[in-house]
Design a protein that fits this description.
116 residues, alpha+beta, two-stranded antiparallel sheet, two-stranded parallel ribbon, 4 helices, 26% helix
Length: 116
C-alpha cells in the first residue's frame, strides 16, 4: 500500500521504519518507550474548538483512528499517553510519568500528516 503526502508517494512499510528503528534502539538499551495518541468522545465534548466547529472525527474513541497503527512496534510494556490538545504535556500526566521514571532527557519523534 502507498500513501501520498506533499506530492510524494511513500510505501506504507517505509512510513514506520524510522520510528520502529528508534523504538528498537531504545529497547535494546533498556530505555522506556512512551507513545502519545489522541482520543476524543464521539460527541466532541472533550475535543478542541476546531474539531467541534469543523466536525473533524478522525481520532474518536472506539474507532481505528484513535488507535496506534498496527505497523508501529508498540508493546504492552510501553506507556501510552492520551492527549486532548496539540501538546502531549497539557493535562496528560506525561510530566508526572517522566518524574516517576526518573527521566530528565527526552528524544521525541513526531510524524503527522494533515491534508488541508
Amino acid at each position: 500500500m502507498n500513501i501520498s503526502t506533499c506530492g510524494t508517494q511513500i510505501k506504507l512499510i517505509d512510513w514506520f521504519r524510522i520510528p520502529n528503528r528508534l523504538v528498537g534502539a531504545f529497547r535494546s538499551l533498556q530505555l522506556p518507550v512512551i507513545w502519545v495518541r489522541q482520543k476524543f468522545r464521539s460527541d466532541f465534548s472533550d475535543a478542541f474548538l476546531e474539531m467541534r466547529d469543523k466536525g473533524i472525527a478522525v481520532t474518536i474513541q472506539g474507532t481505528r483512528g484513535a488507535q496506534l497503527h498496527a505497523g508501529l512496534d508498540w508493546q504492552p510494556r510501553d506507556a501510552t499517553i492520551i492527549k486532548k490538545r496539540y501538546s502531549a504535556f497539557l493535562r496528560t500526566g506525561l510530566d508526572e510519568l517522566l518524574a516517576e521514571m526518573g527521566i530528565d532527557e527526552l528524544v521525541l519523534y513526531s510524524d503527522s500528516v494533515r491534508d488541508r
